[in-house]
Specification:
The complex is a heterodimer of chains A (274) and B (81). With 274 residues, chain A is α/β, with parallel strands linked by helices. Chain A has helices spanning 23-37, 57-61, 74-84, 96-102, 104-113, 158-165, 178-190, 216-225, 238-242, 258-273; strands spanning 45-49, 65-68, 89-95, 118-123, 169-174, 195-200, 227-229, 245-252. Chain A has a single domain (20-273), classed as 3-Layer(aba) Sandwich (Rossmann fold), CATH 3.40.50. Chain A has an 8-stranded mixed beta sheet with strand order 2-1-3-4-6-5-8-7, sandwiched between helices. In chain A, α9 links the parallel β7 (227-229) and β8 (245-252). The interface between A and B is medium-sized, with 33 and 28 residues. The complex binds thiamine diphosphate (TPP), iron/sulfur cluster (SF4) (3 copies) and magnesium ion.
């Protein structure tokens, strides 16, 4: 018996190039479930991505119209697509290095504009594809290939940053929390403005092995044991909570959507010159 | 209430599987077991050895990074959240 969801994938290139136990595959899997359960026609989806292992989730694996762009530029390209094709689901899936590092400015400004993109940031805390270099989301003190004695920097809380920048939907889940993640991805796709889900994900090869979690399952158990639902966060205090991963919905609000505003302004201009 | 008519079948695509063992580790009723079978890429694939213990929770199907597990439910089984 074949998995019905394989119809959404470019099956000629399966199995994936992802390492065994990599969270990227789980994100791909759940995304297929989401598209199927929401009965979205893949012809109505435009996938946009940058460079990294996470960027392989939409391209080449998911079979829809796709822009596989340069490193960090997915949101810039997606902005252009959404302005010209506002009726499409324009969905970006890419990594922490891509979206929070080199593409960080595009991310916060897209959130500020509240443009109707759906962005799934796969946060594996590292530049996975290039061998585990430190990224803007790598936790402090953690050893990486470029910080062998520990990361001297503080990480971005990227979901909080995007929420503060103005996104109308923001949540954070992990590849362990499959049902919540599936729901959050649906909510993000359904929401009209800029929608963002940070997906904390395991990279056993470039991250896990350096922090004593050799297999994908080890990081999944860590997500299970060290996450706190934001609705229960108030019960914890100070140091207790600093070492935990806060998961759940961080923002949901109504703000004017960029492409609609743009159209209204353009109409004013057309009237003015008529 | 009458006897449940629900029936669950579990399929594993041996050629997609990469033997990561995530399904084995996270299935609460321990349905899966490592088999002695190696697929064409050299991975040891799991087998649903105790299919009758499956609650149909869907965790394995959703979390498998290779889309290699299918839970086929006939009859009504509630999805655990
Ligand atoms: C302009 C440019 N700079 C650097 C690179 C090298 N490079 C490729 S992928 C990558 C980081 C990927 O990290 P992330 O986006 O987190 O993806 P992951 O592999 O971790 O999923 C880098 C720095 C590049 N391709 N282009
Ligand atoms: S290097 Fe990390 S992120 Fe990339 S495929 Fe391997 S496990 Fe996944
Ligand atoms: S989770 Fe998927 S890839 Fe991993 S062992 Fe189970 S069936 Fe194979
Ligand atoms: S559906 Fe749930 S109970 Fe059944 S095999 Fe999968 S993880 Fe185990
Ligand atoms: Mg990364």
């Amino acid at each position: 018996m074949k998995n019905n969801l394989l119809k959404y994938l470019r099956t000629e290139i399966l199995p994936t190039e992802f390492c065994a136990g990599c969270g990227c595959g789980t994100v791909l899997n759940i995304f297929c479930h989401v598209v199927d359960e929401m009965k979205i026609n893949p012809d109505d989806i435009i996938m946009v991505t940058g460079i990294g292992c996470s960027s392989w989730i939409p391209s080449p694996y998911f079979s829809a119209d796709t822009l596989h762009t340069t490193h960090g530029r997915a949101i810039a390209f997606a902005t252009g697509v959404k302005v010209m094709k506002p009726e499409k689901h324009v969905i970006v899936i890419a990594g922490d290095g891509d979206l929070a590092g080199i593409g960080g400015n595009h991310l916060i400004h897209a959130a500020r504009r509240n443009i109707g993109l759906t962005v799934f940031l796969v946060n594996n805390y590292i530049y996975g594809m290039t061998g585990g270099q430190v990224s803007p989301t790598t936790p402090s003190s953690v050893p990486t290939s470029t910080t062998p004695y520990g990361n001297s920097e503080q990480p971005f809380k990227i979901a909080e940053l995007v929420a503060a920048a103005g996104a109308s939907y923001v949540s954070r889940w992990t590849t362990y929390h499959v049902f919540h993640l599936k729901k959050a991805m649906k909510d993000a796709i359904q929401n009209k403005g800029f929608s963002f889900v940070e997906i904390c994900s395991q990279c056993p090869t470039s991250y896990g092995k350096r922090v004593g979690m050799r297999e994908g399952i080890d990081q999944l158990k860590d997500f299970r044991d060290n996450s706190i639902d934001i609705r229960k966060a108030a019960e914890y205090e100070g140091d207790d909570i600093d070492s935990k991963l806060i998961i759940g919905k961080l923002a949901e609000r109504t703000r004017p959507e960029f492409t609609e505003m743009l159209r209204k302004i353009n109409m004013k201009f057309d009237e003015a010159i008529a | 209430m009458g006897k449940s008519e629900s029936k669950i079948e579990i399929y594993i695509d041996n050629e997609l599987c990469k033997g990561c063992d995530i399904c084995i580790e996270l299935c609460r009723p321990n349905v899966f077991m490592k088999s002695g079978k190696i697929n064409s890429r050299g991975y040891y694939v799991p087998v649903p050895a105790s299919m009758n213990k499956c609650t149909g929770c869907m965790i394995c199907e959703l979390i498998c990074p290779e889309l290699a597990v299918i839970i086929n439910k006939t009859g009504i089984v509630k999805e655990a959240v």
